[in-house]
Design goal:
The structure holds two protein chains of two kinds.
Chain A: E1 5-7, H1 8-11, E2 15-17, E3 23-32, E4 41-48, E5 51-56, E6 60-64, E7 67-70, E8 76-77, E9 85-86, H2 87-91, E10 95-98, E11 103-106, E12 109-117, E13 120-130, H3 132-140, H4 146-152, E14 159-162, E15 166-168, H5 173-178, H6 184-187, H7 191-200, H8 203-212, H9 215-224, H10 227-236, H11 239-248, H12 251-260, H13 263-272, H14 275-285, H15 292-295, E16 302-304, H16 309-318, E17 328-332, E18 338-343, E19 367-368, H17 373-383, E20 387-391, E21 397-402, H18 403-412
Parallel strand pairs in A: 2-7, 16-17, 19-20
Antiparallel strand pairs in A: 1-12, 2-3, 3-4, 3-9, 4-5, 5-8, 6-7, 10-11, 10-15, 12-13, 13-14, 17-18, 20-21
Helix pairs in contact in A: 7-9, 8-10, 9-11, 10-12, 11-13, 12-14
Chain B: H1 2-14, H2 18-26, H3 29-42, H4 50-71, H5 75-115, H6 121-137, H7 141-151, H8 156-164, H9 169-177, H10 185-198, H11 201-214, H12 221-251, H13 274-306, H14 320-338, H15 344-370, H16 373-376, H17 383-415
Helix pairs in contact in B: 2-11, 2-12, 3-10, 3-12, 3-15, 4-11, 4-12, 4-15, 4-17, 5-6, 5-11, 5-13, 5-14, 5-15, 6-13, 6-14, 7-13, 8-12, 10-15, 10-17, 11-13, 13-14, 15-17
Classes of the chains: A alpha+beta, B mainly alpha.
């Protein structure tokens, strides 16, 4: 049992022997059937002459570098099976997502573990190999004896990804279902990392991912994607799915994305959306992209002038979704005109009965909806703002620009 | 006045895309010197090659941009996915070899252009290498690209020059369409070089990657195609006038081989004392431009094909192979040229011949890929396109074998 590991490059071309030790053929491919077991090699495809035979995993007595010995010789001819993930055809040289390393990688080799099971031996997928060592194995595969290759590769640093962190890419939805490929790993990633990955993929893979992941995750990720790519992704999706995703996005970002689309497409998506987000997005779409109106979002919390700290905390409790990025509360009068801004942190220093008015910042800085982008960034810089309220011609509060909007603007320059 | 000038610049850059940039970089040190040498030695005779070269250039460039738009993948990615690792490794080795010779040619161009101003190459080459490395690694290249492109307007000098030398236009016109074949080593060598410099292996990888990067989709691809074709024609027009100018100024006086890059400045003789300045500026710009794009494009292609991390947005530790390859091409390319007795012109011409010899390798895989229904759907090659590209493969292999045969024959004669 010196060799518990077996590389796919070694498995390929391995001789298969029957009960009497006669050669039946050589291994041409191996298949996993993820619906049955996502890590076990289920079938070995054996080439003997022109025809291919299928060896089931439970027909194998032993596997080693010297060959595969069978314990059952009743083999069936191979016929293409949609439920099979074939290593050579579907995995080798293809791109997959390394969910742990958060990048797209190309499969160069696969490492198996040889495991005893029910008196026979099976192969268990351990790693997907990338990097120099696997490249070396591929280049010399079949040219040198397997044991020599093992010895020669020792000096080269290995680079592998655990199989459970690999997310396979499959654009065909039917096949994805049959192969039981989920995007669960992607949904657990940080949206910004997922966005980076999506940017490096081809349009059809992008579509496949956004078609399938949870709309909320999709919305978060889409917000972080490059604007050109955002537009092409939304255009490629079913209108319904696109609308679901846009609904989940912050209204200002949703408006930015829709503005990138062709009029007709964005109108179709808007039609599919729920009433409330649709209204907000439509309003934002009216503004010029590089004005305060185009930059602002409508997700903010405004309270009346005579509200107290306790009132504020009550309101915050009902708006938990906003808490991640919120740092300022706004005060408005009876006509919804902006009268003050309260930094969130000040709430913690005062008891519940304190009126919010007494906690407001001394100088209130705001901007009209028509203000130019350059002027806005200047204001942020000059007054060290985290959030800037935007008001219409009647001084009614209409939206808020936050520091992260400014960072995006500056990065684009 | 300034406003109008700005307006014109805006128009100029509006039509610029991957196709045009590729075409301009194509006229690098190798291009300028190869065309100059062709005109200087053979006069109007080589003009006939430009028509088939342009046709093949359009066909190959169109194929790449189509593949990029339809599949959304780079050429090296496609070769890897469809032909496996070993084939990719061989094609990448070919690409690195061809581009190493191109880097040598471009550093030779930098050295040659600055030697005109008596700047020795041990100063100009390391300086050029440092500039290239920093421009690319520090990410400032994108903003400098427009300056490079704008400086390509220097090529207009060749058009002016070609008209001013009053060439024999009738003869030029006749030779433009009358093929002349000679079973002569030097002539075949020049033919391969001309094809190699016009349709270099790197261009296919670079253009396809640029189309993918720009996010051109199959639907929008028609606009890209026009831009690609315009770029190819612009490149050939420049080549035409370089040959005519050199035929008129050098060949008409006495047909000869160029010895140093400065000899080629004679092609701009009508500009009198400014000829050297114009030539040096053009050659320097072209060389530096190509020297920025080539190593970067090579490193990207190789790393993507073999599955290594790539991109200047990564740190050295994250993408070591990318940086080593990129830096290696610059250091080796520049280092070779530093050798004081390095024959600049000879090696520049030789590098383009290498490109021509290696072109079929890339062309074969491109043609095989683009005919795969699975990848290209309804956008596979038409019969005409297939005919052109297979004919080009056969022709280039044929020319290479003829060159080898003639060289062996010469050697045998020499020994007996």
């Amino acid at each position: 049992m010196a060799d518990e590991r077996l590389f796919f490059t070694e498995l390929l071309g391995l001789k298969v022997f029957d009960l009497k030790g006669r050669t039946l053929g050589v291994v041409k491919d191996a298949a996993i059937v993820p619906l049955l077991d996502p890590v076990r090699v289920d079938r070995y495809l054996i080439g003997s002459g022109a025809a291919w035979l299928t060896v089931r995993h439970d027909q194998v007595r032993s596997i080693s570098l010297d060959g595969i010995h069978l314990r059952d010789e009743i083999l069936t001819p191979y016929h293409s099976d949609e439920y099979m993930l074939r290593v050579v055809r579907d995995l080798m040289d293809q791109q997959i997502i390394d969910a742990q390393g958060r990048k797209v990688v190309r499969v160069t080799d696969v490492t198996f573990e040889i495991k005893p099971e029910n008196g026979g031996e099976i192969l268990w997928v351990l790693d997907v190999d990338i990097g120099l060592r696997a490249i070396f194995r591929r280049l010399v595969q079949g040219m040198l004896p397997r044991r020599w290759i093992r010895r020669l590769q020792v000096g080269i640093p290995p680079h592998s990804i655990r199989w459970e962190f690999c997310n396979i890419l499959e654009p065909d939805p039917q096949r994805r279902l049959r192969l039981n490929i989920s995007n669960r790993l992607l949904e657990d990633m940080h949206p910004a990392d997922l966005a980076d990955i999506v940017e490096t993929l081809t349009p059809e893979h992008r579509e496949a991912i956004f078609e399938n992941i949870d709309s909320e995750v999709a919305a978060d990720a889409l917000s972080e994607v490059d604007p050109d790519i955002q537009a092409s992704i939304l255009e490629s999706l079913e209108t319904e799915k696109a609308a679901d995703i846009v609904e989940e996005m912050a209204p200002d970002q949703a408006a930015d994305v829709l503005a990138e689309l062709e009029q007709e497409t964005s109108e179709e998506i808007l039609e599919e959306m729920e009433h409330e987000p649709k209204k907000e997005v439509r309003e934002l779409l009216e503004f010029k992209e590089d004005s305060a109106g185009g930059m602002m979002n409508t997700e903010y919390i405004a309270l009346t002038e005579n509200a107290t700290v306790a009132d504020a905390i009550q309101v915050l409790k009902t708006n938990e979704a906003l808490m991640e990025t919120l740092n300022t509360l706004f005060l408005v009068d009876a006509e919804e005109r902006l009268t003050g801004a309260v930094p969130l942190a000040r709430l913690f220093l005062h008891d519940g009965a304190t009126p919010l008015r007494s906690l407001a910042v001394e100088t209130l800085i705001d901007a009209p909806v028509t203000e130019q982008q350059d002027r806005i960034t200047e204001l942020f810089d000059k007054y060290n703002l985290l959030a800037l309220p935007v008001v219409d011609e009647d001084r009614k509060l209409t939206g808020v620009i936050t520091a992260d909007d400014i960072i995006s603007v500056l990065r684009e320059k | 006045m300034w406003k109008r000038f700005r307006y014109h610049i805006a128009i100029f850059f509006a039509v610029i895309g991957p196709g045009f940039i590729t075409a301009m970089v194509d006229n690098d040190a190798g291009g300028i010197l190869t065309y100059s040498q062709a005109g200087a030695k053979y006069g109007y005779l080589p003009l006939w090659t430009l028509l088939p070269i342009t046709l093949l250039l359009i066909v190959t460039q169109e194929m790449c941009s189509r593949m990029g738009a339809v599949t959304g993948k780079g050429l090296s990615d496609l070769i890897r996915e469809e032909f496996g690792l070993r084939t990719t490794f061989i094609v990448m080795a070919v690409l690195v070899l061809a581009n190493l010779t191109n880097m040598i040619a471009d550093f030779a161009g930098i050295a040659g252009s600055l030697e005109i101003f008596n700047i020795p190459r041990w100063v100009s080459v390391p300086l050029g290498a440092a500039i290239v490395w920093l421009l690319v690694v520090k990410g400032t290249y994108a903003s400098v690209e427009k300056i490079f492109l704008f400086a390509c307007l220097v090529y207009i000098a060749y058009i002016v020059s070609a008209i001013l030398v009053k060439p024999d236009w009738k003869e030029a016109a006749i030779y433009s369409v009358r093929p002349v074949l000679m079973l002569q080593g030097a002539y075949i060598y020049m033919l391969i070089g001309m094809v190699g410099t016009s349709i270099a292996p790197w261009m296919q990888f670079y253009l396809q990657a640029a189309v993918v990067e720009k996010g051109v989709t199959a639907k929008e691809y028609k606009e890209s195609r026009i831009e690609v074709i315009v770029g190819c024609i612009a490149m050939s027009v420049i080549a035409f006038f370089i040959i005519v100018a050199c035929a008129g100024t050098i060949y008409e006086v006495a047909p000869r081989d160029l010895q140093v890059p400065a000899d080629a400045a004679a092609g701009l003789k009508p500009f009198g004392p400014y000829a050297y300045l114009l030539f040096a500026a053009g050659l320097f710009n072209a060389s530096l431009f190509a020297a920025c794009i080539l190593p970067l494009s090579t490193a990207y292609s190789v790393c993507e094909g073999l599955g290594f991390e790539s991109g200047v947005n990564h740190r050295f530790r994250e993408a070591p192979i990318f940086y080593w390859l990129f830096t290696g091409l610059i250091v080796v390319g520049g280092g070779v040229v530093m050798w004081p007795r390095f024959p600049l012109v000879k090696m520049i011409l030789f590098s383009q011949v290498i490109n021509g010899v290696l072109l079929p390798v890339v062309l074969i895989f491109m043609t095989l890929l683009i005919n795969k229904k699975k990848l290209m759907h309804e956008w596979t090659n038409s019969r005409f396109y297939n005919f052109i590209s297979w004919a080009a493969v056969a022709l280039m292999i044929g020319l290479t074998m003829a060159l080898v045969a003639l060289s062996i024959q010469d050697m045998m004669r020499g020994t007996s």
